[in-house]
Specification:
Layout: H1 3-18, H2 23-28, E1 34-41, E2 45-46, H3 50-60, E3 65-68, E4 75-76, E5 81-88, H4 89-119, E6 126-128, H5 138-147, E7 161-163, H6 165-171, H7 174-184, E8 191-195, H8 198-207, E9 211-215, H9 219-229, E10 234-238, H10 246-250, E11 256-258, E12 271-275
Parallel strand pairs: 6-11, 7-8, 8-9, 9-10, 10-11
Antiparallel strand pairs: 1-5, 1-12, 2-4, 3-5
Helix pairs in contact: 1-3, 1-4, 3-4, 4-5, 6-7, 7-8, 8-9
Length: 284
């Protein structure tokens, strides 16, 4: 994670949440009151984002102590203490929701990624994310995918060429689009083409595509595409992939399976902050 970008995201989130001031905390907690507590998982899952949570509190008060009990990527059970936090109560309370929002969201992504990865265990296929991410949070969400055992697709449009159906329609066909892209970009950028049938696979292969994205193809057709390509291009399966069919897709021999669901519509992993009475040691 880029530290400068991370701090910018955290400050933006804190500005959004605090507004003109945390009136509740200011009214109910005297300045200088100490607090100690723990971040605890309320359900089983994979943890991601502990450093983000730590930095939230550090931005508000660098004197706050934040001690990890586990590390990102750990599978935890319900009730596991993830970290201890102690220091001035006011900044801890003010930063609580933002820290938990990041931690719960990223842990949810890591948990889903790990679950799907386990479903394709035994097959030499990579699970990759997409650009279907929350605006502004792509860096963190793609980090969480890696924590869960997945891999990243393009981070942004400048990472590579992905010629999709609308590009093909406007460019005048697969061959024309690939030729135009090959002439326009430097030699280190790979060119990927999205196709919907075996004719598209043949044309993309003949045009010299490095990667062919098999869009919404059923497993039998994916298997035929794998046979047709014979290792001459990387094959990526995408579209309508879920827990029910992902293992069948992996069994076709495809190289990559990309899923927008690794980052979009992912439920939070339920994590809470439990504070003790002023001056008490955090409960384990």
């Amino acid at each position: 994670m880029n530290e400068f970008e991370l701090d910018r995201l955290i400050r933006t989130a804190l500005t959004e949440d605090i507004g003109a001031g945390d009136w509740t905390t200011a009214a109910t907690v005297a300045a200088g009151t100490p607090a100690a507590g723990v971040l605890r998982s309320r359900e089983a899952g994979v943890v991601a984002g502990l450093e983000v949570a730590r930095r939230v509190f550090a931005v508000l008060d660098p004197r706050i102590q934040f001690q990890n009990r586990v590390t990102d990527g750990n599978q935890v059970e319900r009730g596991t203490v993830l970290a201890e936090v102690s220091g001035a109560a006011r900044p801890i309370l003010t930063g609580e929701r933002v820290a938990l929002n990041f931690l719960c969201h990223l842990s949810g992504i890591a948990t889903r990624t790990r679950r799907l990865k386990e479903l394709v265990a035994g097959y030499p296929v990579r699970l990759v994310d997409t650009r279907k991410t929350t605006p502004g949070l792509r860096m963190l969400e793609k980090y969480a995918v890696r924590v869960g055992g997945g891999h990243n697709h393009r981070f942004a449009l400048d990472d590579g060429v992905l010629i999709k159906d609308n590009h093909i329609a406007v460019a005048g066909g697969i061959t024309a689009a690939v030729r135009a892209a090959r002439a326009a970009v430097h030699h280190l950028l790979k060119i990927e083409v999205e196709v919907e049938d075996l004719d598209g696979v043949r044309e993309a292969l003949a045009a010299g595509a490095d990667v062919i994205l098999l869009d919404n193809m059923p497993p039998p057709l994916i298997k035929e595409a794998v046979r047709l390509v014979g290792g001459r291009a990387v094959l990526e399966a995408s579209g309508n992939v879920d827990e029910q069919n992902i293992r069948e897709i992996a069994a076709t021999g495809v190289n990559l399976i990309s899923l927008g669901r690794l980052t979009h519509s992912v439920p939070y992993l339920d994590i809470g902050l439990d504070l003790d009475a002023p001056g008490a040691q955090p409960a384990g």
